[in-house]
C-alpha cells in the first residue's frame, strides 16, 4: 500500500476515533448541538491534517494487517508483500463512490473502495503504487467535481421555482427568523415539483418548499420554516460542504462515511431541538415529520442541500422528539470555545502520526450483503376519537390514504399492550389478503409509525375460485387495510348483493364500504343489490348514523337517491332538529332541501323571529333570497325604520335602500324621510354624492320631489 494512502488512513482514524469517543461520552450528557459541534471540529481537523502533517515531526504507529493470500485470478500471478486482497477485490469488483448527503452512502461502500485499491496491487510494486495514487486521485476528483456541480443543480431547481410572496407565508417566515435570531436575508421559494422541504446556500441561504406546501396547515408551515431556518441559524450548509470536502479527500476510509452519517444525524436532532425550544408541541411536530418523511421519501435532494426528513433517520428523531428528559440546549460561546481549544490540543499530535504495516496473518474474504425483496411500506397513525372506546386509524402508502374507526380494545388486543402505558409497539395484523407488520411510538394514547405489508400467497386463488378474479399485490394491500376478506364476501351474499369483480371490491375497500358498513345498512333496510350503489352512498357521507338520525326526525325509509340528495344539500339530523325546535315540524325532504339551498338555517330563523318576523318557511326563503338578513333589519331599525313588514323590507332591499344609504342621506338633511320616498330617490339616481354636489352649489333643503326632478333633467351643474 502507498505510504501516502496509509498515512491518510492512520491519521484520519486517530481523529475519527477521538471524535467517536467524545460522542459516546456526550451521548446522554449533552445536547445534539454539542455532539454536532464535536463532529464539525473533527471534519475541520481532517481537512487541516495534510497541511499540519507537513510541518510536524513524525510519530510512527504500527498497523496490523492480514498477510497476502494467493490470488484466485491465475496460477502465475504474484502479489507484492504489502498487498491485501479481499474476496471482492480479487473478483474484480469495481469501487462504488457515494457522495455526502446521499442516504445510500454507507461505510461498507467506502470499504469497497479500499478493497479496489488493494486489488490494483497485483501489479509490480512501482506500478502498483502509481496505480494506487491514480485511483485515489480519480476518486477525489470525481467527488469534488460532483460537489462543484451541485450548485448548478440547485440553480436549475430555483429557476423552475417561484418566490413565495404570500403575506401568510412571509409573516410566518419573518416570525420564525426572529425567534431563531436569523439576521441574514433568506429566500423562500416554491418548487414546481413535489420535493422534500430543503435548505441550501452558505452565503445566500434559500429554503425550497414543495408544490403542495400551500395546502399545509399553519402549524405545519411554521414547523417546517422553524426547522429549515434552524439550519440557517446554525450555518449547517457550510458545515455540510466542509464534511463533503473531507469525504472527498478521505474517500477510501470507511470511518469518514460513518462520521458523515453521525454528523447528519446530530444536525437534524439539533434542529429538531431548536423547533421544540421555539414552542412547538412535541407530538404535533413528530406527526408533521412523519408525514413529510413518508410523502417525500423518494424525492431527490442535491448533496449540499439539507432535506428536512430522511426516512432512515426517522425512528431515532421521533424518539428524541418525544423524550421529555433530553437536554436540548445549544452550547454557548464559552463552552464552544473550550471544545475547540481541547480539539486543537488533541489534533496536533494526531497530525504527526505515520503508519507502518505489520502483517499478522491471512485475510478473510469479505462478504457482500444480500438484498431483500421489495415490500409495501407506509405510515400509520392512531388518534383517540370522541368515543373513548374507539380510535381513528389512518394508513398512508404512496398517494393513497385510508382511514377507519376501530375499537380500542381490538387494537390493544392486536398490539398486546395498552396504549395509555405503551411507548413503543411492534405487532402483526393478519388479514385474509395479507399481513401488516407494525412498528411505532406511542404517547398519551396517540401512536404513529411505519408498517410493512406482505400479501397473502393464497388469497388470490380463493377469490378466483369464487368468480371474482385475481387481485394484484396492490389490490390485496387495499383490501387488507379495510379488512375486506372472505368473511366480507359472505356478508355481501347474506345481504343479497351480487358477486363483485376485483375492481369493484377494491373500490369498496378504498371508499370505506367495509363489512360493518354493509351489515349496518342492511339492518336499516338498505339491501341495494350491487356494491356500486353502496359505494355511492358512502362517498356522499351517508352512513348508518345519518340514516338513523334522519329517521328519528320523521324522515324514515328514504330512498338511496333521497339520502344522497339530503346529504349533498346539507340536510342532516341536526338541521332538521333545529328547524323543528323553531316550530317547523313535519317538513318533507323537498321543503328542507329548498330552505337549506336558500340559506335558511335555524340561526337565521331565530334571529328574524327575535326581530318580530314570524314567517312561513317559504316566507323566510323569500326574505333570504332578497338579501333581507337580521343585520339589514337591525340596521334600518337603528335609523328609525323599525316594525317594517317583510314585503316592505324586500322592496327596500331590492331598490338598494340599505342602512349605509339611509345614514348618508340622513346626514345630508333627509333624516326621517318616509321609506317610499327613500326608494323613489334611489330609483331616480339620487345618491349622497349628487346631493352633496347640489349643496356645495348652495341648493340645500330641496324637497324629495324637487331633487328627483333636477336629477331627471340631468341638472348636475
Could you characterize what this model shows?
The protein is of the alpha+beta class. Among the domains are: 3-156 and 256-263 and 315-362, no CATH class; 376-512, no CATH class; 626-713, no CATH class. 53% of the residues lie in helices and 12% in strands. The protein is built from 31 helices and 13 strands. The strands form three sheets. A six-stranded antiparallel sheet has the order 10-9-8-13-12-11. The protein has a five-stranded mixed sheet with strand order 2-3-5-4-6, sandwiched between helices. It has a two-stranded parallel sheet with strand order 1-7. β8 and β9 form a beta hairpin. α2 (32-53) packs across α8 (236-249) and α8 runs antiparallel to α9. It is flat, with a radius of gyration of 37 Å.
Descriptive terms for the model:
12% strand, alpha+beta, 6-stranded antiparallel β-sheet, 717 residues, 5-stranded mixed β-sheet
How do you describe this structure in short?
The protein is α+β, with helices and mostly antiparallel strands and about 725 residues long. The protein has 31 helices and 13 strands.
The computed structural class is: alpha+beta
Give the count of helical stretches. 31
Q: Please state how the strands of the largest beta sheet are arranged side by side.
A: 10-9-8-13-12-11
Low-confidence stretches: 65-125, 356-374
Instruction: Note the main sheet.
Output: 6 strands, antiparallel
Task: Annotate the secondary structure layout.
Layout: H1 3-26, H2 32-53, E1 59-67, H3 87-90, H4 107-119, H5 125-159, E2 162-163, H6 167-179, E3 187-190, E4 198-200, E5 206-209, H7 218-234, H8 236-249, H9 254-277, H10 282-295, E6 306-307, H11 314-321, H12 333-351, E7 353-362, E8 376-384, E9 390-397, E10 400-407, H13 408-415, E11 424-431, E12 434-443, E13 446-455, H14 459-465, H15 473-481, H16 486-494, H17 502-510, H18 515-523, H19 531-539, H20 544-552, H21 560-568, H22 573-581, H23 589-597, H24 602-610, H25 617-625, H26 630-638, H27 646-654, H28 659-670, H29 675-683, H30 688-696, H31 704-713
Parallel strand pairs: 1-7, 3-5
Antiparallel strand pairs: 2-3, 4-5, 4-6, 8-9, 8-13, 9-10, 11-12, 12-13
Helix pairs in contact: 1-2, 1-12, 2-8, 2-9, 2-12, 4-9, 5-8, 6-7, 7-9, 8-9, 10-11, 15-17, 17-19
Amino acid at each position: 500500500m502507498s505510504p501516502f494512502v496509509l498515512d491518510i488512513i492512520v491519521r484520519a482514524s486517530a481523529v475519527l476515533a477521538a471524535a467517536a469517543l467524545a460522542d459516546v461520552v456526550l451521548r446522554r450528557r449533552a445536547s445534539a448541538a454539542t455532539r454536532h459541534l464535536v463532529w464539525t471540529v473533527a471534519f475541520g481537523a481532517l481537512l487541516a491534517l495534510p497541511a499540519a502533517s507537513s510541518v510536524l515531526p513524525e510519530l510512527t504507529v504500527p498497523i496490523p494487517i492480514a498477510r497476502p493470500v494467493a490470488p484466485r485470478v491465475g496460477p502465475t500471478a504474484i502479489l507484492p508483500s504489502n498487498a491485501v486482497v479481499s474476496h471482492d477485490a480479487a473478483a474484480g469488483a469495481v469501487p462504488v463512490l457515494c457522495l455526502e448527503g446521499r442516504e445510500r452512502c454507507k461505510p461498507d461502500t467506502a470499504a469497497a473502495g479500499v478493497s479496489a485499491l488493494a486489488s490494483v496491487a497485483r501489479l509490480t510494486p512501482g506500478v502498483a503504487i502509481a496505480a494506487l495514487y491514480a485511483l485515489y486521485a480519480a476518486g477525489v476528483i470525481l467527488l469534488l467535481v460532483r460537489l462543484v456541480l451541485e450548485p448548478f443543480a440547485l440553480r436549475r431547481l430555483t429557476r423552475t421555482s417561484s418566490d413565495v410572496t404570500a403575506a401568510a407565508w412571509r409573516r410566518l417566515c419573518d416570525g420564525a427568523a426572529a425567534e431563531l435570531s436569523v439576521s441574514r436575508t433568506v429566500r423562500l421559494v416554491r418548487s414546481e415539483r413535489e420535493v422534500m422541504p430543503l435548505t441550501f446556500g452558505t452565503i445566500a441561504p434559500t429554503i425550497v418548499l414543495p408544490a403542495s406546501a400551500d395546502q399545509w396547515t399553519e402549524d405545519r408551515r411554521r414547523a417546517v420554516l422553524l426547522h429549515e431556518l434552524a439550519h440557517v441559524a446554525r450555518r449547517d450548509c457550510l458545515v455540510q460542504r466542509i464534511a463533503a470536502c473531507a469525504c472527498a479527500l478521505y474517500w477510501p476510509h470507511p470511518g469518514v462515511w460513518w462520521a458523515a452519517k453521525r454528523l447528519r444525524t446530530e444536525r437534524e436532532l439539533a434542529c429538531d431541538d431548536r423547533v421544540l425550544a421555539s414552542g412547538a408541541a412535541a407530538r404535533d411536530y413528530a406527526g408533521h415529520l412523519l408525514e413529510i418523511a413518508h410523502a417525500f421519501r423518494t424525492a431527490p435532494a442535491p448533496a449540499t442541500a439539507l432535506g428536512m426528513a430522511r426516512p432512515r433517520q426517522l425512528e431515532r428523531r421521533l424518539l428524541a422528539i418525544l423524550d421529555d428528559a433530553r437536554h436540548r440546549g445549544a452550547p454557548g460561546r464559552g463552552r464552544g470555545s473550550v471544545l475547540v481549544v481541547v480539539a486543537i490540543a488533541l489534533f496536533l499530535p494526531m497530525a504527526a502520526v505515520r503508519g507502518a504495516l505489520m502483517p499478522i496473518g491471512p485475510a478473510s474474504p469479505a462478504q457482500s450483503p444480500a438484498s431483500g425483496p421489495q415490500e409495501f411500506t407506509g405510515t400509520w397513525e392512531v388518534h383517540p376519537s370522541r368515543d373513548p372506546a374507539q380510535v381513528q386509524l389512518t394508513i398512508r402508502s404512496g398517494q393513497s390514504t385510508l382511514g377507519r374507526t376501530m375499537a380500542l380494545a381490538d387494537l390493544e388486543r392486536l398490539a398486546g399492550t395498552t396504549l395509555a402505558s405503551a411507548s413503543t409497539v411492534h405487532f402483526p395484523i393478519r388479514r385474509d389478503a395479507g399481513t401488516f407488520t407494525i412498528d411505532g411510538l406511542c404517547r398519551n394514547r396517540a401512536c404513529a409509525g411505519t408498517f410493512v405489508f406482505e400479501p397473502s400467497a393464497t388469497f388470490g386463488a380463493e377469490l378466483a375460485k369464487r368468480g371474482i378474479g385475481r387481485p394484484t399485490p396492490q389490490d390485496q394491500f387495499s383490501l387488507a387495510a379495510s379488512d375486506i376478506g372472505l368473511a366480507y364476501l359472505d356478508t355481501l351474499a347474506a345481504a343479497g348483493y351480487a358477486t363483485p369483480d376485483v375492481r369493484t371490491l377494491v373500490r369498496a375497500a378504498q371508499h370505506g364500504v367495509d363489512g360493518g358498513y354493509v351489515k349496518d345498512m342492511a339492518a336499516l333496510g338498505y339491501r341495494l343489490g350491487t356494491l356500486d350503489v353502496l359505494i355511492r352512498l358512502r362517498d356522499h357521507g351517508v352512513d348508518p348514523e345519518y340514516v338513523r338520525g334522519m329517521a328519528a326526525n320523521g324522515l324514515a325509509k328514504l330512498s338511496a337517491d333521497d339520502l344522497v340528495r339530503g346529504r349533498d344539500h346539507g340536510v342532516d339530523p341536526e338541521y332538521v332538529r333545529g328547524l323543528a325546535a323553531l316550530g317547523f315540524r313535519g317538513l318533507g325532504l323537498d321543503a328542507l332541501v329548498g330552505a337549506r339551498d336558500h340559506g335558511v338555517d335555524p340561526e337565521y330563523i331565530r334571529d328574524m323571529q327575535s326581530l318580530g318576523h314570524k314567517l312561513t318557511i317559504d316566507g323566510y326563503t323569500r326574505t333570504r333570497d332578497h338579501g333581507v338578513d337580521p343585520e339589514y333589519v337591525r340596521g334600518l331599525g337603528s335609523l328609525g325604520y323599525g316594525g317594517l313588514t317583510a314585503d316592505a323590507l324586500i322592496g327596500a332591499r331590492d331598490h338598494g335602500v340599505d342602512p349605509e344609504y339611509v345614514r348618508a342621506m340622513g346626514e345630508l338633511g333627509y333624516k326621517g324621510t318616509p321609506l317610499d320616498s327613500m326608494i323613489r330617490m334611489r330609483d331616480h339616481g339620487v345618491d349622497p354624492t349628487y346631493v352633496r354636489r347640489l349643496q356645495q352649489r348652495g341648493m340645500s333643503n330641496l324637497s324629495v320631489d324637487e331633487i328627483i326632478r333636477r336629477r331627471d333633467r340631468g341638472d348636475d351643474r
